[in-house]
User: Fold this.
Amino acid sequence: MTEDRARSLPLRRMASAVLPILGAAAVLAALPSVWFGDSPYTTSLAVQALVFASYGVGFNLIFGSTNQLFLCVGALAGVGGYAAGILANETSQPMLVAIVVGTASAAIVGGLLSWIAVRRSLGIIFTGIVTLVFSLGFANLLLGQRDLTGSETGLIVEGVPSGLADDMVGGYYLFAGLLVAFLIVFRALQLSHIGWAFRALRDDEVAAELAGVDVARYRVYAATVGSAMIGLTGAVLAYSAGFISPATYSFDRVDVRVLVMVAFGGLGTLLGPLIGAGVFAILDEQLTASLELREVLYGVFVIAIFLFFRRGVVQAIVSLFDRFSGRGRARHDLQPSRE
Amino acid sequence: MRAVVLDGIVLGLAFGLLGVGMTLVYGLGGVINLAYGQIVVLAAIVISVVMEDGRATFVAAIVGVLAAAGVSVLLDLTLMRPVYHQHGEERTLLGLLLTLGAAFVIGGVLTWRYPDGALYIFVSGDPISIVGVPMSVGSIWASVIALAVAAVLLLFFGATTFGRGVRSVIQDETGARLVGINPSFVRTVIFALSGALAGVVAIAQSMSGPLTVNAGFELTTFALIVTVVGGLGSVAGAFLAGVLLGVVNSLSAHYIGQYITTIILLGAAALTILIRPRGLLGR
Assistant:
């Protein structure tokens, strides 16, 4: 009897590790036929939500797992997107090479930022300010290098395979696949020894260091992998949209949104970014009329989330539900990794 | 060359004035107020609305300063209360995020109600020659205001009992409480002062050029750069950093180009954090 239970435990843990991802993949696969049908508008909203969810997973790995406040998600995506786009335009490399180079550039930049922050032992705030400064500097670099980037008018990415830019539903599946892959990487990291190190250093940095966890190394790991995810998303976006401009990757369009979304879904959780992105896609659909009111609403959301739902709105709802149904603990896949 | 440096000093005094309101609040409670630029814009819009109503510029300016101080106190009494229950880095992070939210709310409401709102206070008079360089009366006024504010603040913190009380809270919150100073009250006063300074920034900035409704984010960025370079919490540091950055800005914009100049200023902030995290004159 006891042996049986002992053997079934890893199996059950495996199931609880994989099931949420499978569920998310199934929902994403079924969504086109049940929700947006033929409307290009709703399709583009869904694609945008997927892009932001993918950014969110990367940001979640960096901030949610290892407490590094990277306020340069848009800039990292821009590094990926512009590196790919400029390479494609200047040397007419094939798409795959350009995307790989874009992803690698973003990973290197993100890893370097993290390495600097770790080496100078900047706290969470100074890391935030340095990365914010990097974001703004990058935006100015894009504006200044008119010959390469086309400045405000933007850059048309050449060599896009025919069909990719026109086929919205195809683009949807492309980003859905990307997101599911990111979720698998995120979960695999959580379950491996790296995940243990993440949890340890998130809970108590000094204690983790004393217990033999190389805090600096794991921070740089998380930043490199997370930045690669963000850069890959940015590079693929450059190809699927066929056109990029500084606005595509600007701080106020990308970073604020990603921060709100991830915080809404729950920092450090697996499905948080996906849930946040979905909720905000619906919100955007309802609020098409006024851009300014949307801004106000974002502000209210930021304040409400950080005042009342520090562990995410989803987590709050789940624990409320659990209290009523008498279940003692929250669902595993929605629990922050630090627990 | 002389004209460029003088331009830089004028710009730098404006930078210093911009940074000082942010650095005071940070020094006191460890809160980086990301809504600062939006409060400046709020003051500007209030002034322009009152002026359109037919009131004198002077009256409108006072109303604007009071409005900015009022909003600032409101922020302190509502959003900042839970922030001050936290300590250390947690406090700064929560303050950062909540004021970011407040920045979006204030900025959003202003652009929604006054999409074309702008303030430009025109000061008439012929350009005055200073060391052989003709300067517009507006920018001379702006510099005079900045210098006056710097003098008043330094006097306030150096020579008045309340100012010393504020400095004691900056140095040691618990110790200040022990000798009978109420940190919470001091913080509210400083928030009000910071808001009033935001109003003064709006007036000074709009004397040398129009201040538009969507300038908030840029103002916050520059205030943050000045605050970081000057040393968090230091009035003299903010003005020193402001003038330094202003001169660098003018020289670089004149000889290299505007985009690179912004990158140089941002780089200065990043380098300060990396090499000397407490800033030029920070403790």
In short: The mean pLDDT of chain B is 91. Chain B touches chain A at residues 32, 79, 82, 89, 92-94, 96-98, 100-109, 111-112, 115, 217, 221, 224-225, 228, 257, 259-260, 262-263, 266-267, 269-270, 273-274, 277 (CB under 8 Å).
